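Q: Protein A?
A:
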Amino acid sequence: VADLWLVYSKPVPANGRELRTLFLQCSCITAVIGGLFYNWMFDSLEYSWHLSVAMAVSFSLLLLLTLFLVHPARCVFSMIMPTLGTKQGRKLLLSTCTMIVVVNILPNIISNIKTILQVIQCICKNSSESLLNSTALLGTAAWEFGDAIQETSNSINIHRPMNGHFQFSLLKNSSLIYQQMHLAGEKIERDFLAVEALVKDSVRVGNRLVAGFSMLYLCFESTWYLKNYLTDLRFDNFYITKKLERLAVDRKAAHLLVGPSKNLLRPTGMKLSREEVMLCLVQAMLLTVALMLMLVVVAMDHFAFSVADTAERKASQFSMVPVTLNIKYSVSAGAKIGILNSLLEFLGLPSKELPLQDFKGSYHHYLIFSSAHCGISRPTPPSPSVLLAVGLLFCILYATVFLQTYAHRLRRKIAGSFFESWEEKRALYLYKKLSRKHKEG
């Protein structure tokens, strides 16, 4: 591995064997990166298949030529890998996590809300239909009650009244109500589909912009680091490297490194400075806020499924509600109609008692709230694989928070291995700086 890295980090291959080895290394790297780039564009960013293939192939060929021919480009590309463990890498992972949530969890929430609306629509449709049918019960009761009154009226021979039946108007055609309910349901469904499409498109565009910006910034940050590394001897130069230790031993000044300043660190050590610890804590807090937002969406998914599942099960268990209409009309046997008797006496006719009869009727009907013809879709449970993917991504994100310091140190080590002569100059500069401080102290 050390020999392969030596060939890869050399400015110019020494012979044909090293040239072939370098080309094979660059080919393997570009093949892997091209596959990951295609999967990222097609699955995460949701570009079309043809565009993803074309972009992946073009990117792989360009990367192969760049890595094989340009030595600083190999250094920048190699530093991009540990940079993925820093803030920019977390942005890419958060972008991927957001896209997973939008593509998988949000449509599931909307689907379960649709199921709830279908249950409500079914109950409204069946209950209104059953309620309209119950008006026929009122019509039957009114007609029979009218018959009873008509029989009483027929017992009076002096006057023949008009038809004594109640004229009860019924809504025979309920298609207008069904049509309005159907149109309302279609409008709600269209609104939900429009909201779902808007959210998906907005997050997709935003995710693509963030992903593209993050990739460009990864390249820019690595290039910026290499530029400062090669132009400023003081830049990121506070590590006790092997070259610095060897230089101190050769000049018999190992005591300069025995009790090093608190600002000096070993690049391979686990010690973190106070500034690095504070930075990790701040980044962890910001990541926790993003995690809370994701957990709210996941909780909404579980809540929507729970409500939809309960509504769907309870709707099928709704029993018919019996409705009974009781009509009781009671009249005393000795009752008289004063006006009619006065009229009979005026005409010289004997008054007579009206044989009013009691009326009692009982009418039954059933209100139906649910039906098997409603066509309610089954609620969709949350996907365990999606939750597992989101959980794993956040575990990686939290790991990068505490590993970003070591990623920065690895980036410096990579730059030093590509430009060894410049690393010796940096070690000499740091040695002189320590010697000067020791003499002044």
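Q: Protein B?
A:
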Amino acid sequence: MWALLVLIGAASVSAHLQDLSFDGQKVFRVIPQNDEQVEILNFLASIMEVDFWQPDSVTMVKPKMQVDFRVETEKSFQVEDLLKESGMEYQVLIDNLQAALDAQFDSKVRTASHSYEKYNNWDTIAAWTADIAAQNPDLVSRSVIGETYEGRPMYLLKMGKSGSNKKAIFMDCGFHAREWISPAFCQWFVKEAVETYGKDTVMTTLLDKLDFYVLPVVNIDGYVYTWRNDRMWRKTRSKNAGSTCIGTDPNRNFDAGWCTAGASRSPCASTYCGSAPESEKETKALADFIREHLSTIKAYLTIHSYSQLLLFPYSYTYDLPANYQELNSIASAASKELASLHNTKYTYGPGAETIYPAAGGSDDWAYDLGIKYSFTFELRDTGRYGFLLPESQIKPTCEETLLAVKYIANYVLEHLY
């Protein structure tokens, strides 16, 4: 078997970015049963480029854990032989990544302009932020909280009826560039707020009594790159000193157990923590805004994909947060709300023990800052499509997630501190 591994390692690594067709690339799911099988995955990752989808890195893999990863076309048969030979349970989740990629765009909506049931590119989203604010001046305003590494403005929408000393909820989407369903949800949430204000009693009360800050895309440069260059890109697009590898994982870049568990110090790793906490312009802009508005922001919601999880602190430690019981019961009730529409099952709990330890996340950072209601959503699905969730699932995904978000927001309103 080791001879086979060495053979795989010797095959080219450079075919990587020359022509980005994903034709023939496969996504495997394996469940290593013991340390030896985990070791095989570690070795595989060390000799060839393996893109880990779930968990984010091979370093987090443990026995009995479900592991999804993508491999280059020319390696996929050898990898399959290796898995067979090692006796590891595996299945091919996606047989041809390019086909799955093309199949994402299955929306029946035929429009070149913005649509809530399609994936919109950044230029379309940016124009939409201006439009939605212009069309709903009494409910929505737009500001710029910073700019990205490549100089793009970071637009923030503030939603709510004007009132004195209102408390607020901060929500962001699009931390990881390839998680397209995430920005789709932020857009959907804004749409629902403006369309149902005055009709839906819960939404009306929420907007009357709270403000919502919505950052539709955090990692704009990365998101643009997924549309133009590499659909599977995850990180930011900043240059790293002394390395040809680009980008930092923005959700490992916060000052919460920074660069300890589940984060890498290698600029080439997909979980690279950056040169220092808030080294990324995007994370710094977000953190600065929250710090400046700390007296009013009472909840923090960050939207990711995939795995159908509702997580709360901590991820950088196995220690439980002070209000663990409360957060757990909110997550339980919100997951029930979510499941009530399409019966989508979510798992909930503290990040480290529910999935794996991961340091430097925005949710832990916000919580440690004093925002006691801090949650991370990992939206659909559980791996059938992974990051390539078809557009036909945008509406049901957003509808069900909205129920959970409204539940949490309403709880926060009733338990202001």
